Amino acid sequence: KELDILANPNGRLNDGCLNGVAHLLQAVFSQPGHESHYPSGRCAIFSTFDLHMVRYHASDADIWRRTRATQYWERAVWILPIHRRSPSEHWVLAIIYPEARRVLLFDSFAGGARLWRHEIQNDVSSPSDDQEIMELVTRLVICANRNNCHLPVVVEEGWVAQPASVRPHQTNGYDCGLWVLAGIAAVLRGFHVPGLCEADMPSFRELLHRYILGLPSYYSK
């Protein structure tokens, strides 16, 4: 199913596409000798499902179980793809720098901070029930420290959120997931925003599809 979506020029990427390709990109960029080996190794990529744990009040034990494999407490950059359902379904990306207490928000439509109100506010130090990103960050810090993985990050104050780009990258209604993957690739390579334009998206989609088709197949006995 995911390969069919990726092969479709107008296909809207789902969670499987986003999560699978994101980790594939990191595996490629993290290879020894690759020019992006260092910046890629500084990143932890979270699943598109991880923010749901905050929304549905998951326990600390569940959050730790689902996220500890990323070793996020040892990473300088946290990458969090998010599927927004309102005002319309749309993929966006949060790039979190825990030590600097900074969050960059990449939206290919450059929709503005008001569209992020259910995830984070511009001043993330002000109290709000809708600050889901910051609630996840707080829970991650708590979970790491409770499990003897030292993570000295202040979560109560001093955080700022900024748009990664104020210029719209996308005009169609189906490439937002692809733009999030382009954003993830940029961060893994040490940048904040992708250096692509909308005309590059068909080639980027085809490149990802061809690379996945070229991977060896493994079958369980």
Number of helical segments with 4 or more residues: 8
End-to-end C-alpha gap: 22 Å
Average pLDDT works out at 89
Number of strands: 5
Looking at CATH, the homologous superfamily is Adenoviral Proteinase, Chain A
Tell me the major beta sheet. 5 strands, mixed
The proportion of strand residues reads 5-15%
What helical percentage do the residues reach? 25-40%
Descriptive account of the structure:
By secondary structure, the protein is an alpha/beta fold. It has one domain: Adenoviral Proteinase, Chain (3-Layer(aba) Sandwich). Helix content is 37%, strand content 13%. The protein has helices spanning 2-7, 15-29, 37-41, 50-55, 60-67, 132-146, 176-188, 201-213, and strands at residues 43-45, 77-84, 90-97, 102-106, 160-163. The protein has a 5-stranded mixed β-sheet. β3 (90-97) and β4 form a beta hairpin. α5 (60-67) packs across α6 (132-146). Residues 121-130 have low confidence and may be disordered.
